[in-house]
Design brief:
It is built from five helices and 36 strands. Keywords: Glycoprotein, Signal.
Length: about 550
């Protein structure tokens, strides 16, 4: 009762504030109230402690329309601090709401915090997740669906239904045990299995009618493993990648790397029976597989036999598929103008940043690093330290623009960047495992990827006409991926490995995109409900 009354009062105050300050009513508001608890879950048939949202795992789906304002009131009923972050939501002018430790103080146990964010100029398929400690290994994630505004044309007819698929690897051990393994200086063991929407094999069913077309929004929400997604007997027409309408190429299967999201259209044009929906691990010596069921409403036959085999370790096939992803230049994005009207390849870059991952042993323990720097969390969120000018929390320039070639070391690494710059970022992977990189607050154009060592001559093979833009990109073993990125969003932004063990052990840093104007036009002021912690207490 106390919890409900407190949330009701808070929602009423927020509603009054929003009505007064946004009387023009241009962009709608959507309100969510979430209670975060621990609870028993059985994804792989073994009881373990999971993170639930309103008693659910996965959590409730966020459904929005371009430019909607989302008011998400989170009550932390765990016995430990907690934060949500929003994979792919750009938080325009508003890194205050990004929900990672570099920007936000954790929500204390038994306390409430309300995120106020806007899906400004965005469409597409994304997801949210717990960002602190190793909470992501306990669940607590859910889908985000941002639809186009009614007046904006979409380059395909409305589907009969719209399904979210949250798939990835899973461990039967509790998240605290996995965290202890990493804290003791070891790497994680091999995952125990894969799950689809919180379930192991054949425990989740997608119901369809024969002869109709359905949209599947697929995200890899796992911790360590790339996956391949396929539907037995059915082709998939790719239509969207992380907020960009694509050329509608047809695929039998799709590689989806850590943190990535895709949308496909599937037409149920096969004989009426049940079919396997399959995810399997990629680039692993042992192949993990999980299945769900595509159930025709007039089905005359259940699934039987083994699910269809998928690819295993074939890197060249995956690379060629990645290169085949192209932007639909004539389709409208979140705005009515065609996606091809932004000529990303004709803009001169202002800076080149080369980021190389490594796996150093530091003080006798396994760590991971970027340009030799293994990130350690400060005692105060970087955004608060920057805003209040608290000295000694971080130093700009504490990570180099280029690989150093030296040994790894611990540092709270922050890279300075100028608002409205246009940078070339080259992710270089000298290791023998696939990497997956994400940048908060931005999208970038994937202009090239190839094996071997990147050099200036590699630019001659860049796609400067119709590549996709996205927020998460893979880098194949002993390979590189290059992106062009407009620095069009002021704030403190996390650049991270989407391999959660590597991120936890240091393969991340923060990009401080700075504007000297100190204007609401460039960045919103600190929210009135911003939590204080560390050296920001009292400011």
């Amino acid at each position: 009762m106390e919890y409900s009354m407190r949330l009701s009062s808070l929602s009423l105050l927020l509603l009054v504030f929003l009505v007064v300050t946004n009387s023009n009513g241009e962009d709608p508001y959507r309100f969510y109230t979430w209670n975060v608890t621990f609870g028993d879950i059985y994804p792989l048939g073994v009881k373990q402690q999971g993170i639930l949202i309103n008693g659910q795992f996965p959590g409730p789906q966020i459904e929005a329309v371009t430019n909607d304002n989302l008011i998400i009131s989170v009550f932390n009923s765990l016995d430990q601090p907690f934060l949500f972050s929003w994979n792919g939501v750009e938080q325009r002018r508003n890194s205050w709401q990004d929900g990672v430790y570099g920007t936000n103080c954790p929500i204390p146990p038994g306390k409430n915090f309300t995120y106020v964010l806007q899906v400004k100029d965005q469409i597409g398929s994304f997801f949210y997740f717990p960002s602190l400690e190793f909470h992501k290994a306990a669940g607590g994630y859910g889908g985000i669906k941002i639809n186009s505004r009614p007046m904006i044309p979409v380059p395909f007819p409305p589907p009969a239904n719209d399904f979210t698929v949250l798939a990835g690897d899973w461990y039967s051990r509790n998240h605290t045990d996995l965290k202890a393994i990493l804290d003791n200086g070891s790497d994680l063991p091999f995952p125990d299995g894969l799950i689809i929407n919180g379930h192991g094999s054949n425990a989740f069913t997608f119901n369809v009618d024969q002869g109709k077309t359905y949209r599947f929004r697929i995200s890899n929400v796992g911790l360590t493993t790339s996956i391949n997604f396929r539907i037995q007997g059915h082709k998939m027409k790719l239509v969207e990648v992380e907020g960009i309408h694509t050329l509608q190429n047809t695929y039998d299967s799709l590689d989806i790397h850590l943190g990535q999201s895709y949308s496909v259209l599937v037409t149920t044009d096969q004989p009426p029976q049940d079919y396997y929906i399959v995810v399997s691990s990629r680039f692993t010596a042992q192949v993990l597989t999980a299945t769900s069921i595509l159930h025709y409403s007039n089905s005359a036959k259940t699934v039987s036999g083994p699910p269809p085999d998928g690819l295993t370790v074939q890197i060249d096939w995956s690379l060629e598929q990645a290169r085949s992803l192209r932007r639909n230049l004539s389709a409208s994005g979140p705005r009515p103008n065609p996606q091809g009207s932004y000529h990303y390849g004709l803009i001169n870059t202002t800076r080149t940043i080369r980021l190389q991952n490594s796996a150093p042993i530091i003080n006798g323990k396994q760590r991971y690093a970027v340009n030799s720097v293994s990130f350690i969390n400060p005692d105060t969120p970087l955004k608060l330290a920057d805003y209040f000018n608290i000295q000694g929390v971080f130093s700009l320039g504490s990570i180099s623009d280029n690989p150093t070639g030296g040994g790894g070391y611990l540092q709270t690494s922050v890279m300075a960047a100028d608002f409205r710059g246009y940078v070339e970022i080259v992710f270089e992977n000298p290791e023998d495992t696939v990497q997956s990189w994400h940048i908060d607050g931005h999208h970038f154009f994937v202009v090239g990827m190839d094996g071997g060592q990147w050099s200036a001559s590699s630019r001659s093979n860049y796609n400067l006409g119709d590549t996709i833009s996205r927020c998460t990109v893979q880098v194949y073993p002993k390979s590189w991926s290059a992106v062009y990125m407009p620095l069009d969003n002021v704030g403190m932004w996390n650049v991270r490995s989407e391999n959660w063990a590597r991120r936890y052990l240091g393969q991340q840093f923060y990009l401080r995109v700075y504007s000297p104007a100190n204007s609401w036009r460039d960045e919103y002021p600190i929210p009135s409900n911003a939590l204080r912690c560390g050296r920001a207490i009292g400011h």
